[in-house]
Amino acid sequence: MKTLIIYATRYGTTGTCAQLLSDALEGEVVLQNLAENPTIDLAGFETVVVGSPVYAGRINKRVKRFCSNHESTLLAKRLGLFTCDMEEGDGSIKQLDHCYAPPLVAHALVKNSFGGQFLFSQMGWFTKKMIKMMSKSDEDVKRIQYDAIKEFADVLNS
Q1: Residue 60: helix, strand or coil by DSSP?
Q2: Which end of the chain is less congested by CB atoms within 10 angstroms, N or C?
Q3: pLDDT averaged over every residue in the chain
Q4: In the beta sheet, which residues pair with residue 113?
């Protein structure tokens, strides 16, 4: 089985999670960052996984555009959807359901949030200030959900 993981990342967390998922999947896996290559041929892949960070309740614009432009093709594939965000529990899944188009959410074999991180050393001044105000801290927060990544991979591997 050949799997494509398409993602976008701003500070690297989504890329890290995409790599962790790739490592847990069986068969041939190709990782593709939409910032590096926005034109992707989906023809040779049985399974496609799409991942995006969530900022202010929205997925990355490249991911959103890709999903919109390739919706009919994605609906013909085994599909997985993930987000990276700092929401927890049911709020995170509701956010994912809201961010991706309803037909893709309904079609997805598996969907989940992989958690997120606040890495202050990688943020610009404005973002750092906003996160400090919201979190009331300037300490890095690392909440990648490794179990969620493993469970996601287990579904795709079965």
Answers
A1: coil
A2: C
A3: 86
A4: 83
